[in-house]
Amino acid sequence: MEAGNLWFVPVERVLLAEPRGFCAGVEKAIKALDWMVRVFEPPVYCYHEIVHNAHVVDHFCDEGVVFVDDVGRVPVGAPLMLSAHGTAPAVVAEARAAGGVVVDAVCPLVTKVHHELKVRSAKGYTVLYVGHAGHEEAVGTMAVAPDSVVLIETEDDLDALAERDLADAPVALLAQTTLSHDEWKGLMEAALKAIAGKADAVLVIGSANSSNTVALEKVARASGCPLVLRVNEAAEVPSDLAGTVGVTAGASAPETLVEEVIARLAPTEGTTTVLVTEEDEYFPPPPELRELLRALATAVGLLAGVPGPAGDPVAEDRKVSAAAVLAAVAG
């Protein structure tokens, strides 16, 4: 292929990691916020980014969602969603006290970590929490039992523990769910390792503030791939890639971005999916939203003269993917 006076060897094949992209917690959160913008008049408020991906956030901004980092900025009585990363108990209480509908879209895996921290703290444990300082999930989790938890980011933090008197206290270990302790991410890393050793380059699709995406970069480099790049979108893909290119996506990255990246690569010999396992985890809408949707369905049924709900929107939720929701929003 000739471009000006330069010769470029085209990309021959794309190795596409599976599983990749949206995890079940992200699926739940995106679909829940989509329900919110359909049920309520704008603006709908969301505490923190619903997930760490600029394209997803932009989609919902266009739909009238206002993202805030302080629930005190939410007008009294306005509908509010709490993000998938989990929220500090005091912030949840403040949000509910404002009187509006509050839907907590926290990932059930994060809820489990919160529960474990609360239980271990009550039993006198010192909890070592492996996570990233300032990340919304870490902030919300550590606020559950701030006097009993120690943040561990690096080996230096572990060395510093030697200065603390932990000899007589039991110690427990918990981790941010977007790190390697999350089973789903472990599977995705396995898929990435399967392609990184066979590729001339690996593209990791996702935003820089996504811990999961950054971790995937590190996995690809550790697997020996000569060139690893993180890209937000297809426009950031270099035009001089050649040979075999591996592609994966962080847990917050929409599948549409994957499709656009592959289209830009235009592999002459097509795309091969490298499957490690089937991922079919599903989390239903948050309980507050389930009650609201069923109440609305019942009201619609009564207005239509039907003695009961006009269908079950909660049951229908499983049939629709977050990717489809975002495609509908974009359209």
Commentary on this structure:
It is a single chain. The protein has 331 residues and is an alpha/beta fold. The chain is built from twelve helices and 14 strands. The longest helix is centred in the C-terminal third of the chain and has 17 residues, at 287-303. It is globular, with a radius of gyration of 22 Å.
Helices and strands in order, then pairings?
Blueprint: E1 2-3, E2 6-7, E3 11-18, H1 24-39, E4 44-47, H2 54-62, E5 65-68, E6 80-82, H3 89-97, E7 102-104, H4 108-122, E8 126-130, H5 136-142, E9 149-152, H6 155-160, E10 171-175, H7 183-196, E11 201-205, H8 211-222, E12 228-231, E13 243-249, H9 255-265, E14 271-275, H10 287-303, H11 313-317, H12 322-330
Parallel strand pairs: 3-13, 3-14, 4-5, 4-6, 6-7, 8-9, 8-10, 11-12, 11-13
Antiparallel strand pairs: 1-2
Helix pairs in contact: 1-12, 7-8
Provide a short characterization of the protein structure.
This protein has 331 residues and is an alpha/beta fold. It has helices spanning 24-39, 54-62, 89-97, 108-122, 136-142, 155-160, 183-196, 211-222, 255-265, 287-303, 313-317, 322-330, and strands spanning 2-3, 6-7, 11-18, 44-47, 65-68, 80-82, 102-104, 126-130, 149-152, 171-175, 201-205, 228-231, 243-249, 271-275.
